[in-house]
Amino acid sequence: MVSGLAALYLFIQPIYSFELNYGGTLAMAFYCFVVSIDIGLIHVITQALEQLRAERNRSADLSRRTEIMFSELQHRVSNNLQVITGLLLLEDVPVDVANQR
């Protein structure tokens, strides 16, 4: 608003006055239109950035969960193989332990 009043006072005829004629009114209306569009675009961009930030956080969380679940799966498979190896050793079945992994 201050820049609009400064533009009215300094650049619109009659200069150094807040008096408005037809041209000044048209110029101020155009100025208000442009400022409104700018404010609207800034608002939309800000909302889009907030949504992007939320999606990035969600993706990072999903990635961490996937890594944890994969690690848990590897651990369980390894445990199951160890149990099978132990059972085979109890049965006296030859097992190549070195090539098991």
What does this structure look like?
The structure is a single chain. The protein has 101 residues and is an all-alpha fold. The chain has one domain (2-99). Helix content is 78%, strand content 0%. The protein contains two helices and no strands. The longest helix has 69 residues, at 22-90. It starts with a helix and ends in an 11-residue tail after the last helix.
What layout of secondary structure does this protein have?
Blueprint (H helix, E strand, L loop, with lengths): L1 H10 L10 H69 L11
In short:
The chain is mainly alpha-helical.
- Rough outline: rod-shaped
Q: Mean pLDDT score, rounded?
A: 88
Helical proportion, percent range: over 70%
- Total helical elements: 2
N- to C-terminal distance: 72 Å
Helices and strands, in order, run as HH
Number of strands: 0
Q: Which structural class best describes the helix and strand composition?
A: mainly alpha
Beta-strand percentage range: under 5%
Largest sheet: none
Poorly predicted ranges: none
- Gyration radius, rounded: 36 Å
**How many separate domains make up the residues?**
1
Oligomer: single chain
List the keywords:
101 residues; mainly alpha; 78% helix
